[in-house]
Amino acid sequence: MRTVVCQAPGHLTLEQRADPSCGPGEALLRIRRVGVCGTDIHAYGGNQPYFTYPRVLGHELAGEIVAVGDGVDPARVGQQAYVIPYLHCGECRACRRGRTNCCRRMQVIGVHRDGGMCDTLAVPADHLVSDASLSLDQLALVECLAIGAHAVRRSELAEGELAVVVGAGPIGMGVAQLARERGARVVMVDTNAERLAFCHERLGILETLNPADQDVPAALAALGDGELADVVFDATGNPTAMCRGFDLVAHAGRYVLVSIVKADIAFHDPDFHGREMTLLASRNATSEDFDTVCRLMAAGHLEASAMITHRAELDALPDHLPAWCVPGSGVVKAMIELEFPEHAEAEAVHAPDHRQ
Predict the structure, then answer these.
(1) Residue of 60, 63, 69, 89 with fewest CB within 10 Å of its CB?
(2) In what residue span(s) does the Alcohol dehydrogenase-like N-terminal domain sit (predicted)?
(3) How many whole angstroms separate alpha carbon 60 and alpha carbon 49?
């Protein structure tokens, strides 16, 4: 089968590997869509802290179940499904508390073990969720949006609160939409004017701020009757922005770090204590968050497909990914498509082609 391997930072190769076998409790997923995540881009750039090389990237996965192993219902063959890529041990304290998203022995598909930038992947069947109500594109975006759902749930965001999302990438866009579903007043902050316009025009985020030409704390105080944000979510992946985010949090407010970086994050302790601020990390997602996203997406409450701005076939990925990683490329979300002969006719009538 075809497999794209990240051999080292900045180096992708297309290889032929043996087809995987299907063990007990597993299912074989024929990969049809792979969303390119910030994690993939950081891994390609050598900036992902949990990453070793060589590695097959790809954890935003959707496809068709083509075989099952012992102990798995044969009726699942032929069903389309998405992957919950966080493989937890089930035994550590976090798992026993239901916090499987931060398992002590976490193995994330596409990060700690080889992922889905290939034709076929063997996956534990209990991490494959069948869904006939959503398109392949939507299914491939469920994981991305579940990250936002988890961050918002962890924040305990309440209706009417002022929520600030810093970083208008796909994760930030998911956080903003999930925060809006909670009834919060949402403000998106980014230095990229095009991203802010996209959030306003395509996602319906009514209030946006650009630190390049606006005093963000002053603008938030004006919006909040002299107060800052009840909750700030950082989705920048930028250490400097993450440190500055503390300055946007109101007294008794919460700061949620959705991003992860290979850096130390510092804050001024007197301000932190004076505001009795709550600082939260948000990692991955649980099945509850995936269920929330699927329900809202099926009801038309989440705009996902509009985020897909670029597409490529698997064979072309080594040529396209370097360009997608360049600042100013215009990529919001890139999607890898894998087509097979039996699907060619069905896929002939397709959404507009955005391959670049």
Answers:
(1) 89
(2) 23-129
(3) 19
- The answer to whether the beta carbons of residues 33 and 350 sit under 8 Å apart is no
Contact assessment for residue 335 and residue 137, using Cβ atoms and an 8 Å cutoff: yes
Tokens of 203: 């996602």
Packing angle between helix 136-155 and helix 287-298, nearest 10 degrees?
Answer: 120
User: pLDDT tens-digit profile of 181-204?
Assistant: 999 999 999 999 999 999 999 999
pTM metric for this prediction: 0.92
Q: How many CB atoms lie within 10 A of CB 67?
A: 18
Give the β-pairing of 11-16 and 2-8: antiparallel
Residue numbers in the chain where pLDDT is lower than 70: 340-356
Query: Taking the alpha carbons of 334, 232, 103, 136 in that order, is the dihedral positive or negative?
Result: negative
- CB count, 10 Å around CB of 298? 13
pLDDT of amino acid 341: 54
Is 131 within 8 Å of 140 (Cβ atoms)? no
pLDDT more than 90, % of the chain? 86
